[in-house]
Write a structure and sequence with these properties.
The chain is of the alpha+beta class. It is 59% helix and 10% strand.
Length: 306
């Protein structure tokens, strides 16, 4: 009996020790967990505060300007000077535009006055504008009755040829007034020549119309156009421009009321290839005005229509 009680006592003590041991183990685990969580929190707080410190430091560095940086910043006086300069540029640009508008208005007024006083001499004929059917060329014989031209140009033509002769040049007038029938035959002959070269009919016509107009569209029908060749070069081609007589004509023709009708640099405007031999009578006022302002007859009409 005593032995049984002793055995039971031992069992109880053993059981008690086991329970105490379990409790200690549980307490240790809880403590370790708390320490682990605490260390995580502490690490997070450290990173947070360190990050804030760096951000504050960077912001402070960005806001602080060195003396050299301050020098780059324009002073109020410099800003004011720049503003005044910009204003002057704007004002100058505006004045330039106004001056150009005034110049254009003056050109328009002058062109209209010249046209009003010389409409008959300023008739425009080209690919787009046909000569009206009842046009009177007011013909008169020139060149010892070899050719006919408008009586309006006869006196100035005589003076121009005389002026050239005094300068040491003589000329041959190859063509003046043409009838519409004659003009059409010239175009047809040119087309036939181009077809023989292997061109199609359409291509031959387009090529021909670079230099020869159809009836009703040629300046020669006005009696105011002349093909003037130098006596030492009777080729009707661009070699005329290097001849001394042609150079003299181009430099002085405006003084006698003539203009070079189809300049090299204006081919896109006239729609006619360069013809250094083709001179058109427009009257002295118009010729000087057009020459001084580098205008073709098409551009002169553009001014009239503004």
């Amino acid at each position: 009996m005593i032995k049984m009680e002793q055995e039971n006592e031992r069992k109880r003590k053993k059981e008690y020790k086991k329970k105490e041991y379990r409790k200690k183990r549980i307490r240790r685990k809880r403590i370790r967990r708390l320490l682990f969580v605490g260390s995580l929190l502490l690490t997070a707080l450290i990173f947070y505060f360190v990050g804030n410190c760096f951000a504050t430091l960077n912001a402070g560095t960005a806001n602080v300007q060195s003396p050299e940086r301050k020098k780059d910043k324009p002073a109020p006086e410099q800003k004011e000077e720049k503003t005044k300069t910009d204003e002057k540029k704007t004002e100058s640009s505006g004045q330039g535009q106004l001056q150009e508008e005034n110049r254009q208005n003056q050109l328009v007024d002058e062109a209209r006055g010249i046209y009003q006083n010389g409409q008959a001499l300023l008739v425009l004929v080209n690919k787009e504008r046909e000569l009206f059917s009842d046009y009177d060329a007011n013909l008169s014989y020139i060149c010892n009755k070899r050719l006919q031209a408008s009586a309006d140009l006869k006196e100035d033509l005589t003076k121009m040829l005389s002026g050239g002769k005094k300068a040491g040049y003589t000329f041959w007038i190859a063509s003046a007034w043409r009838s519409s029938k004659r003009q059409q035959k010239l175009l047809e002959a040119e087309v036939t020549k181009n077809i023989k070269k292997g061109m199609s009919s359409e291509a031959a016509l387009n090529k021909s119309m670079e230099t020869v107009m159809p009836a009703g569209h040629s300046e020669h029908e006005t009696g105011l156009a002349l093909d003037i060749l130098c006596s030492d070069n009777l080729k009707m081609d661009e070699t005329q421009e290097t001849a001394g007589g042609n150079i003299w004509l181009r430099e002085h023709c405006a003084e006698y009321g003539f203009v070079l009708r189809y300049p090299k640099e204006k081919a896109e405007i006239t729609n006619i290839a360069y013809e250094p031999w083709h001179f058109r009578y427009v009257g002295r006022d118009a010729a000087v005005f057009m020459t001084q302002n580098n205008l073709t007859l098409e551009e002169f009409y553009d001014l009239l229509e503004k």
